[in-house]
Amino acid sequence: MAAGPLAAQEAPAEQDKKDEKATELARIEVTGSNIKRTDVETASPVQIISRQDIENMGARTLLQVLDNLPAARPAQVDSKSLFTGSDGASQANLRGLGAQGTLVLLNGRRLSYYGAPAGFQTQFVNIDSIPAAAIERMEVLTDGASAVYGTDAVAGVINVITKREYKGLEVNLVTDKSSRFDSYGEHQASITGGFGDLDEDRYNVYASVNLYRRDPIPLSEMYDKKPAQYYINNPNYINNLRIGTGSAPGVFNPGYYYAIDPVTKVRRDEAAPGCNNVLAVATGTRCIWQTWLNNEIEGGAKSERVTAYVNGHFLIGENTEAFAEATYTDIDLTANGGTPRAFGTTTGNPQSWFSRNTGTTVNQFLTPWLGPDNEYNHASPELKAINGGVVGLSYLLQDVGGNHFGQRNTDKSYRVLAGLKGSLGDWNWETAFASAGTHSVTYQTTNVNIDGFIKAFGPFTIDPGTGRVIISDHPAYKFGEISEANAALIREAFPTFDIQSWTRLHTLDGKIEGPLFNLPAGEVRAAFGFNATRETFYTPGNEDAANGKITQQGGSWFDGKRNTYALFAEAVAPITEKLELDMAVRLDKYPNFSANVAPKIGIKYQALPQLLLRGTYSEGFRAPSLAESGTGGVYAQIGGYRDETRCAETNAIATLLRQSQRQTDVDLGNSLYNSDCSRNVARMTRPNPDLKPEKAKISTLGFVWEPAKWLSVSADWWFIYRRNEIVAPDYSNPEEIIEMTRFPITETDQANLAALAAMCADPASGVTCPGTLPSYSTGNVASVIGQYKNRGRTLVDGFDIDARSRFDLGDYGNLNIGVAATIARRNMYNFDDGSGWYYGNFVGYYGNPRLRATLNADWSYGEVTTSFFVNYVGKTKWAWDKYDALDNNAETCTGGYVAVAPSDCDGVPAWWTANLGLNWQPDDHWHVGFTLKNLFNRKPFFDPNDWMTYSGYASNLGRSYSFSVGYKF
């Protein structure tokens, strides 16, 4: 990248008109500027990743490319996004400021947001929808660019650039397989063809079609391949799958009954007559079944994508060119939900959820009991006597088999664009109209439809003796048989329902660029332009879910639209022969907000022929999205909600039970431990029409040094200060909860206390219990309500370092070696507008490593190129911040309040992987490649803070093998 400006310094001062024309034609537009330049080096740092670079690093998707950039941080991955609201999509995340702070462009223009916002609230561009087969290169601007592009470009810009023209026909095939998971595979096929020569025929049209498929990983391959520490922390995990002890999938299981003594609160379980899989537990006996190991939600969903891209350029007259492009992507992601649902009478917390049409009232659902006269109540007289004949039932509803439950996500996105560009004298102009949109649908078969459940098991009545809700004595669903009639009822009780959402973005833009006047040092060039957009966002919601009839169903219901307008200007002025000044300003007008002015200034100074100095200052902004400031709301669940009171009380009970000499007590204690420390809680997040835009100040300062022709080194300090941040409520902070409800202490709670009392009363348990036994003071949190707000500020800064060397080995070919690193210096946050930084510096704490780096070495010898690529992520503490470190540190050897591996007590270990690739190109037609990913077959460490039990950047696939072949006709 340094070669461009350094070579320009060596150009002779005097040139004839022919040379001037050649120089003019050589001007190119670089991401982050509207002005065409004769070199690619600007005041702002820009990383250029070529198609060859992508192949050398072994990346097959745009997401995998970003995973290998030190400046990028982990973000949502489509295969791990189920039940997040934005299921089936992937995000970009520069500097850790989130997808909403990273602008993603295709050929310099915006794409529409993904239809379903992340967490039902954050809008972003789905990078999986970008046509991979047509990519020529990526330009990553690691500097603020709101002065050029407007909203979202606070942390930087990722501009994916396709081929300008293509002639001929090319076919490529790629397949990846894992050594650790036989079921896993990643496969791609693409065909690209085009005709016409812009120079000779005055036109070129080409099209590219890319097919992608990722195979799912079922639980049968995943359950025993988690990091070892997980099984130490969860000793009953594999046992609870009941492999080899429970009834096999598809084999009838009569289930078991239970009752709770109204006086002693002791629970009694009893396997139903005819049970062949009896298990003794602390409360009696149960009839158990195996977990159906075809569940794909945890291991990895199947994804199929089809992307089509068409590009055309047509020369009109001497000075005008017409251009057009169209992109269409069809994504289909599916995940089998595995084990059929069970009829399980509720004795613990009921299911709770909000819905659109029930307002702030929390919906609740409890699975009913069997009455004394129920035709399927075959409990023993002793069990029936406990509650006047009323019993609970646990029964496997397997009539619809193991493939009914699960989730499917489809997304159809497009962008069509047409424009003209040309020249008027020395000035270049361009204008285009683009229409983009996406239609996302989530199909879920997980939760109960209350009407369908009543049809199968109702009508419900109230037992006069116990006050319990009981099912019909003669329900439509026939327990004790597996039939199609039962299956039809289950499909209505657990239906597949859809959540649909649409986004649209229409854009008209225009700009003109050229010389203004001459200074003694050279020509001053400027650009002026406008941008007008129409944005719509529509998520109507499922009618049954809106009325609260779908249990625990989250969703967002928004209907928003707005017009926005922008004017921008930019200038580049050579102050001296060595000093160049860049200036840009943009005026954006959003409805309901004052016009936002975003300035930027940059300086480039050629201090020495081998040394270029550069720096920028800019101001950025992010306007509230329609999801955050429109009408409607978010009705969903909080996963992992931690209630310190209930967590401590339940763990105190569990700790005593785990000390028992009686195995049934230990099993109960293991199941209770940490069970109330991370729960799903119903939440409602209200939009806020009074939100203000986020504002940011961004700076960079660095240099490019080329001490020798074979070595180039660049280093840049970057700084981002973002304030007025738009955030959802922090529900762990009581001050941000507008309203909270709790469940009462449940029958399960009372049964647990009774089991504890029985253990302490039995000398055979070997436990010395305290005089006052642990107990419950309150029930679990049922729901919380909050609202979006402008809150707090973030400051991040650090250094980007990039070193590239090129060696001519003579008869032994060429060797290129590169090292890139991002060194974080500060990451600080304050949740209010007060002084100081409440949590201190996050760098070095969980999720914020100080160092991320890559190393690549590419040796080209004859027809073969050998590539070696290393990706490194530095170590951190387990604690999230200095306050969390009081509980999670090397002394406690815990992370997320859970034990970590003894070797990792000091913190999250550094993680690295290496890829080795061979590419053979015997002639101009064939291309064959083979890559060993994770060459040293490294296994991920246990990460208690990640729901997958290992960090998202630490793959669990082990060593993988990738083979590619391509042919050009």
Topology of helices and strands:
Blueprint: H1 3-9, H2 17-25, E1 28-29, E2 36-37, E3 46-50, H3 51-56, H4 62-67, E4 102-106, E5 109-110, E6 135-141, H5 146-149, E7 156-162, E8 168-178, E9 185-195, E10 203-214, H6 219-222, H7 228-233, H8 237-240, E11 256-260, E12 267-271, E13 278-281, E14 284-287, E15 302-316, E16 320-336, E17 342-344, E18 351-353, E19 363-365, H9 381-386, E20 392-396, E21 406-424, E22 427-445, H10 450-457, E23 461-462, E24 469-470, H11 484-493, E25 497-519, E26 522-539, H12 543-546, E27 555-574, E28 579-589, E29 596-608, E30 611-622, H13 626-629, E31 632-641, H14 644-657, H15 663-672, E32 679-686, E33 694-708, E34 711-723, E35 726-727, E36 739-742, H16 747-761, E37 781-787, E38 789-790, E39 793-808, E40 814-830, E41 851-861, E42 864-873, E43 894-895, E44 898-899, E45 911-920, E46 926-933, E47 960-968
Parallel strand pairs: 4-7, 32-37
Antiparallel strand pairs: 1-2, 3-6, 4-5, 6-7, 8-9, 8-47, 9-10, 10-15, 11-12, 11-20, 13-14, 15-16, 16-21, 17-20, 18-19, 21-22, 22-25, 23-24, 25-26, 26-27, 27-28, 27-31, 28-29, 29-30, 30-33, 31-32, 33-34, 34-39, 35-38, 36-37, 39-40, 40-41, 41-42, 42-45, 43-44, 45-46, 46-47
